[in-house]
Structure to design on (240 residues):
């Protein structure tokens, strides 16, 4: 009987120790975090080398504005350059467009060039400037200033001595400041001759250019849309 009671006591003690060990292991074990749910991640964006048409709307607007601005400017210049010969050159915002009809300035401004002048204060004109002035009510001349006569007691305005660079002698008549149309700011060879050929059909040709420009721009947009690179559809991927 003594052996049996001792054995049972030992087994109870062993069970108690095992329970204490399990409790200690559970107390020391780290708490595991719950596994996160899969989160949808957007697919990687398309490379910047393949840009969507919607990503650059401002560039199309800039191209269109520059194109139509240049077209309108060309039309305005043509209309101004083909003005009536019986009156002074047409002026828009101080600028005038004229055609060189003779070769007196051939070495610098060839015959047939389109000349653009800007209205300036006569006091700012200097020797060496090319100016356009009215020789009479029906004729404008573009020559170089070689001498300036300042206002005096006999004349309240300045006067200019001019000369065609390819002429042997200066112009006989002095040019009054009030007759100056403007200073030449640039010229384009041969364009004036084209404007002269247009003549009285300037308005019709201007309208034709405007319509043709709009058509070409529309064709350009269509071709660009048809040839644009295909963009893969965005897909989401699951990341653990």
């Amino acid at each position: 009987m003594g052996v049996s009671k001792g054995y049972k006591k030992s087994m109870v003690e062993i069970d108690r120790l095992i329970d204490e060990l399990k409790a200690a292991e559970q107390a020391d074990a780290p708490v595991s975090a719950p596994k996160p749910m899969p989160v949808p991640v957007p697919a990687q964006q398309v490379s910047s080398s393949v840009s969507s048409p919607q990503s650059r709307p401002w560039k199309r607007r800039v191209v269109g504005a520059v194109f139509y601005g240049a077209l309108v400017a060309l039309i305005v210049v043509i209309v101004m350059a083909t003005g009536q010969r019986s009156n002074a050159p047409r002026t828009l915002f101080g600028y005038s467009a004229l055609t060189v009809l003779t070769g007196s300035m051939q070495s610098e401004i060839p015959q047939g060039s389109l000349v653009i002048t800007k209205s300036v204060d006569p006091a700012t004109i200097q020797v060496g400037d090319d100016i356009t002035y009215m020789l009479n009510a029906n004729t404008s001349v573009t020559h170089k200033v070689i001498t300036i006569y300042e206002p005096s007691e006999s004349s309240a305005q300045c006067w200019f001595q001019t000369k065609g660079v390819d002429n042997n002698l200066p112009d006989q008549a002095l040019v009054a400041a009030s007759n100056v149309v403007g200073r030449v700011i640039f010229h384009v060879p041969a364009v004036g001759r084209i404007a002269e050929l247009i003549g009285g059909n300037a308005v019709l040709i201007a309208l034709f250019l405007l319509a043709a420009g709009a058509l070409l721009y529309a064709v350009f947009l269509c071709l660009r849309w048809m040839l644009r690179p295909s963009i893969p559809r965005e897909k989401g991927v699951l990341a653990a």
